[in-house]
Specification:
Blueprint: H1 39-65, H2 69-82, H3 90-100, H4 104-117, H5 122-134, H6 138-151, H7 157-169, H8 173-184, H9 191-203, H10 207-220, H11 227-237, H12 241-254, H13 259-271, H14 275-288, H15 293-305, H16 309-322, H17 327-339, H18 343-363
Length: 368
């Protein structure tokens, strides 16, 4: 999931700025005539220096706006090293630049300094929370994201989403439900809110908690679409096809136009060796949605089990055109060709499947 936030321009610079540092005064503090400069001259020098810093800051911001984050970092780091007392806003811009280049530790530190300069810098507070979350510190991120929500309730759906994920990681499921409800603009104690929580928990690989949330959703709203579907997914995950079948059948009664229900019914029937009802369910899935490869692949598998490799080949070839990088499709194509006695084509598909599978396994290996 990539999260994009609008970066507000902090400083608007008008007028012509020299961009040059003022000439250093003699060590004695006197001018060439031996007379101390007038206070007005000193004020003018200070003003010019400040305007020069702000000019550099504005230029760095423009580079950020045009995707030149590394160039902005170089300018801002030089500015912090040479300008003495840092100008307000430099750490904010540095944090944004670090975040965009994936330097999350540096970004978190910069946002912390920006908040010290201005505790009401809402964007720095929010971005510090996001940086902490991406650094694997969701509990530490929560206070910052909560502050953003207090300042601007419902203003940023992305912040509510990340806050919800932080709550999930911290096992604060009621708070997570509240955050997701805010994100999707549903009442927090409704069946819809519990269904959203169930979906997020399943994605977080917390299936038991996801099932509990789906059951609560059905207690509150007995005919809530997708709630039985979520429970069916849970029972499939637990390798309990009988209970999965009951849930998917109930979902079909509530939501008969959902192609995914028939896809899952086809899966359940296939697992239990009931190939005729599996074929019927998958035909319905394909009739409702021709853009998903899953039903085509599963239909090819079912037809192979029913000793119909020629028809299976038609579905599998269609799936391969839609997604050439699916190794399961190539494996089943190899089986279909072999059943038809087309050994050369079968070998080609099996080799392709092996290459794709090996490449996918290699990508999963951790970097050294």
């Amino acid at each position: 999931m990539r999260i994009v936030f609008t970066i507000t321009l902090l400083f608007l610079i008008s007028g012509v700025v020299t961009g040059q540092s003022p000439k250093p005064e003699p060590p004695s503090g006197a001018n060439h005539d031996g007379v101390s400069p007038a206070p007005a001259d000193h004020a003018q020098t200070t003003s010019l220096a400040k305007r020069s810093v702000l000019d550099i800051l504005a230029e760095a911001h423009q580079k950020l706006e045009h995707g030149e984050a590394q160039e902005a970092i170089t300018m801002l780091e030089q500015l912090t090293a040479t300008s003495g007392e840092p100008a307000k806003g430099v750490q904010h811009e540095l944090g944004i630049a670090y975040y965009r280049t994936g330097k999350l530790l540096s970004a978190e530190r910069a946002f912390a300094r920006a908040i010290e300069e201005d505790p009401n810098d809402m964007e720095s507070v929010q971005m510090r929370g996001l940086s902490l979350y991406r650094l694997g510190r969701p509990a530490a991120a929560i206070p910052f994201l909560e502050r953003v929500r207090q300042w601007t309730p419902n203003a940023n759906a992305d912040a509510n989403y990340v806050l919800g994920l932080c709550y999930v990681n911290s096992q604060r499921l009621d708070d997570a439900r509240q955050a997701f409800a805010n994100q999707f603009s549903v009442p927090p104690n409704s069946g819809s809110a519990y269904l959203l929580l169930s979906k997020m928990l399943m994605q977080a690989n917390l299936p038991e908690a996801a099932a509990d949330a789906a059951k609560k959703a059905l207690d509150l709203t007995p005919r809530l679409p997708l709630a039985h579907f979520m429970l069916g997914e849970f029972y499939l995950f637990k390798s309990d096809p009988e209970r999965a079948l009951r849930e998917f059948e109930q979902e079909r009664e509530i939501n008969p136009a959902n192609f995914a229900v028939y896809d899952r019914l086809g899966d359940v029937y296939t697992r239990s060796g009931q190939y005729q009802p599996a074929q019927e369910a998958l035909t319905k899935a394909i009739s409702l949605d021709t853009s998903s490869t899953g039903p085509f692949i599963l239909m090819g598998k079912v037809l192979l089990r029913r000793d119909d490799p020629q028809t299976s080949l038609l579905y599998l070839q269609h799936a391969e055109k839609m997604d050439p990088g699916n190794y399961i499709t190539h494996t089943l194509l190899g089986q279909a060709y072999r059943s038809l006695g087309r050994e050369e084509e079968a070998k080609k598909e099996i080799d392709a499947a092996s290459e794709i599978h090996a490449a996918s396994q290699l990508k999963l290996q951790p970097e050294p």
